[in-house]
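Example A, followed by Example B.
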Amino acid sequence: MLAKLLLGIVFSLGAPLALFAQERYAISYGGTAGFQASIWAMKDLGALEKYGLDADVVLVPGTTRGIQGLLGGSLHFAQVDAAGALTAILNGADLVLVGGTMNKIPFSMVTQPEIRDPKQLKGKKIGVVNFGGANEFAVLAALKEWDIPAQSVTIMAAGGAANRLVGLSAKALDATVLSPPETLKAEQLGFRILLHLSELKASFPMNMIAVRGAFLEKNRDAVKRFLKAHSDAVYQFKHDKKKGVRVYQKRLRQKEAAVIDATYDYYAPKFEVPPRVNREGLEFTAKFVMGRVAGGKTLDINKILDESILDELDKEGFFKTLAK
């Protein structure tokens, strides 16, 4: 009897310890555009469970809020864009970038139908979600490549994609940047796709994974398992259209098969495995950010970007196993 009682005490003490050991993680994505599929696929294709991560993926609109969640401890991993992440780091945030799956601007410049040439954007109003993020960077990068002075246009904070489509319809905006499936809706409404900005020479790390530096130091194994799950999910999404379409059907809640197909065909080739951040693009973005933040502060890319776990996985042959 005493032995049974002692055994029961052992199990009752052991249960909470086991639960404590299996921490639940929160992973954020920043919106409902198709390039967020790299996070959705982790959950929807079973990669989190495959690599032993008890985790939820949650919508936290915008890179800035995602970073706030990381710093506040409510998030463990966040998918962020380069401009927002580097701005936060420049302002003292304890963030490290451990990987990234998209290094091109995934937006298109959408304009009123009468605008047929980039030079016609001079004197026009261009809407972005907000200042300081990927939208504004994309517009400025495009203007620079087209040799159009930034001061010759008016860049306006105009809210989310739906709001900016309304702004175009009301002629309150002359142009904006959108991504599928919103670009498809814009074309249906008669607006012009002036250019897909992924065709610009400039690289821009759009999808990067950020963690707190302190979290990486204490939870390196969890970060490694995350990067395995992330890479596996993106590989499946990229190379198996049926799986990718299934993810979009669930997450975009779009009933039109043609829209889903077009969204997949636009994004899938742009995802990268192994998930490495383009250093040239990160340095280009760093110059953009440093030019906007006063105080003469500088950014050391080697301290911001830690790809040591990806290097380990490469040496271990992990990425080669995905193809098998």
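Example B, a separate protein, is given below in the same form.
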Amino acid sequence: MNVKITRNAAKVIQTELDKEENKELLLRVLVTHAHGDHAHYGLDLDKPGANDVVVETDKGISVIVQKDQPLLDGVKIDYLYGDQEGFMIINPSKGNHGDH
């Protein structure tokens, strides 16, 4: 499994992970809805379970993904600033370049 996190996203995520109440948790990226080869993604803070794998990123953030979900392999997490500030999660390796 491969997960990429941009610099902007890593800063926001690390701020959340550094909070005292989140010290025991990792970032989880998940498929919230899938149809065909297209998926919508979400983020959560969680602990890994039996059906998960923990992926280490080049930003020093460990990410939990469901090991039998191919739509998570190659996911990219970004954070956009501006009028609609927030996370954008895509999977260009699966042809998913944003929500519709």
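On Example B: The chain has one helix and seven strands.
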